[in-house]
Amino acid sequence: MTSKEEQSRHLPAVMDSKQAAEYLGVSYGRLRNLLWLGLGPKSFSFGKRDRRFRVSDLDAFIAAKVGDRAPGGMPPTPTVKRGPGRPRKGRTSFAVIMAVGVVSAVLFVMMVFIAMMR
């Protein structure tokens, strides 16, 4: 028998989140964050909180992170960085100031036009 077959005899078919985190070598909180971000390994659940992981899916996740192969044999998708969060207090962008000014000017012209029509 090969070492992989020996290991598979000692591993359960599916693992819960804490076992999967230990298998991956990350903390339980890190695994939860990866799952919440949609970047974690494939999993399934038996309800709202009972999440399980197949050992083969965990191995595919590790292989994809190492760069051996992507899950499903597909090329890895590039990560998309999100833009910056909301601006800091007191720093309003020029575009926002201009948009507010234009809307205010249009409303003022409409009010003057309505007043002239009476």
List the helices and strands and how they pair.
Layout: H1 3-10, E1 14-16, H2 17-24, H3 28-37, E2 44-45, E3 51-54, H4 55-66, H5 94-117
Antiparallel strand pairs: 1-3, 2-3
Helix pairs in contact: 2-3
CATH architecture of the domain at 14-68: Orthogonal Bundle
Order of helices and strands: HEHHEEHH
CATH C-level of the domain at 14-68: Mainly Alpha
Provide the CATH topology of the domain at 14-68.
Multidrug-efflux Transporter Regulator, Chain: A, Domain 2
Task: Name a few traits of the molecule.
single chain; mainly alpha; Multidrug-efflux Transporter Regulator, Chain: A, Domain 2; three-stranded antiparallel beta sheet; transmembrane helix; transmembrane; membrane
Q: Mind explaining what this structure looks like?
A:
The chain has 118 residues and is mainly alpha-helical. The protein has a domain at 14-68: Multidrug-efflux Transporter Regulator, Chain: A, Domain 2 (Orthogonal Bundle). The protein is built from five helices and three strands, in the order αβααββαα. It has helices at residues 3-10, 17-24, 28-37, 55-66, 94-117; strands spanning 14-16, 44-45, 51-54. It has a three-stranded antiparallel beta sheet with strand order 1-3-2. The radius of gyration is 27 Å and the shape is elongated. The protein starts with a helix and ends with a helix. 8% of the residues are buried. The model has no long low-confidence stretch (mean pLDDT 79). Residues 69-88 are annotated as: Disordered. It comes from Gluconacetobacter diazotrophicus (Acetobacter diazotrophicus). InterPro entries: HTH_17 (IPR041657). The chain crosses the membrane at residues 94-117. Pfam families: HTH_17.
